[in-house]
Amino acid sequence: MFKPRRPEFLVLIVAVYVALILNQAFWQKFLRLVAPNRVSDWLFVGGAAVSAVLLAYLVLLAFSLKPLLRTLVLILLPLTAAAAYFMKEYGVVIDSHMVRNVFETDSRETGDLITLGLVGYVVFLGLVPAVLFSLVPWTKRSWRVDTLTKLKFAVAALIICAVVLLPIWGNLLALGREHRELRMTLTPVNYISALTSYLRDRERKRIKTITPNGEDAHRMAFGSARKSLFVVVVGETARADHFALNGYSRPTNPGLSKIADLINYPNAYSCGTDTAQSVPCMFSGLSRKNFTNAKAEGQENLLDILERAGIDVVWRENQAGCKGVCARVKTERLTGHKVPTFFPSSENYDDVLIDGLEKRIDSLRTNTVIVLHMMGSHGPAYWKRYPPQFETFVPACKDAQFSRCDLPTIINAYDNTIVYSDHVLTRLIGVLSGAASHGVDAGMLYVSDHGESLGEHGMYLHGMPYALAPEAQIHVPMVAWLSPSMRDSRGITPSCLSSRTHGRVSQDNLFHSVLGIMQVETRAYDRSLDLFAACRKPAS
Question: Which of 10, 19, 218, 273 has fewest C-beta within 10 Å?
């Protein structure tokens, strides 16, 4: 079927294919940054392209034993094609945090990302070339001749690469330092490096003991028979500038905007750009500056401290998991539970998080903190996150492959998720408003885990390295509400709260604000990070 070919030439074809064809996202970004308009600029671009091909060639040549190389190509090309698709389709970059998202998501979210475009890339740009490569026979020659020939080609490639690289090396380093995202779009280097980093971190984080945190925690006793309930709502993928409360031109907050005593923080920022960073960070008390996933996994968090202080803690999950935060507290997993009213495509809408809350309040016997983990605005399948009656903005994109949708329809679908989240939060506040009649002081704090890119600079979704992340991925909505009885019992003045909402706040505030509002004393508490402390009279 195919004539025998010399392996060093077959390797060169694969190197050219990987370095140039499967790296369109990299070269588009590279050309945009270099903006070549002179001969010297084009020589720089050409030198970079030749160097990329030769470096790929040298690596592949080192693995060019027939069974080994064929196996490597059968794995490498489909994975590289998949990476190329996601970078092209959504404008993302690939680092260890993105790899963590891949490994720590669930099958429902993964299913949303499997599109015809992805399948087409993997099959036609990955599997087909890999199979064709495997079918081509190699020229027969002795082991000695084969080794010497490959060595000659490797030396020649190394010399040419050095000659090409030397004149442009300084400029390449400068470009790479100034634009770190470049190396995160160069595939397969990006995902191999990210996977290695992720696995190394996983190995390092195999923890046998959890370091105690807030061992001195206790709740201040005031002799009141009233119980306290505070609800922490962890939103998903909501961006602050798409909240009407923050000045967005569309009416995305029809419910919350009518709540007179709502506390809105328009300048709130996340700890990370993905769930796997932000959720553990906000409950860790470490602060964004000091946070690492390894540190957070190695110590107790806010929920452990609350339980130590005698407060009942419940985590209600309608997402892909709590990222280890709820490992030691009562957890109610609602994802996949068949609830007749809210059960589309084997997923529950976020209304399920509020179901049964009134009954729980009625039977409350101890001070309680409930965490509600929303599905929120999780993309790219935005249209799956809200019931049909909440499709306020039309037409809405109903395809996870964004290249098939116009940008306005993508934004319509996303904004509909915000409208629905507004409904869920409004319903929650409505239920908590009735808690006083059951002898319960109630309140809530909502903050999204991170934001979302919606086509700005050709970028979609989230997960960019924090230092490179656009405002859309880190500027998040945050709102709070305290019942009159909770405000009174804590000596909090509403006007004071309203006057202190325009400064910059972040997810660092959550840990200390919950401890403060639940009247927990511990050395782990920092009053300066408590959103409510400045407006709270000292306890008598």
Answer: 218
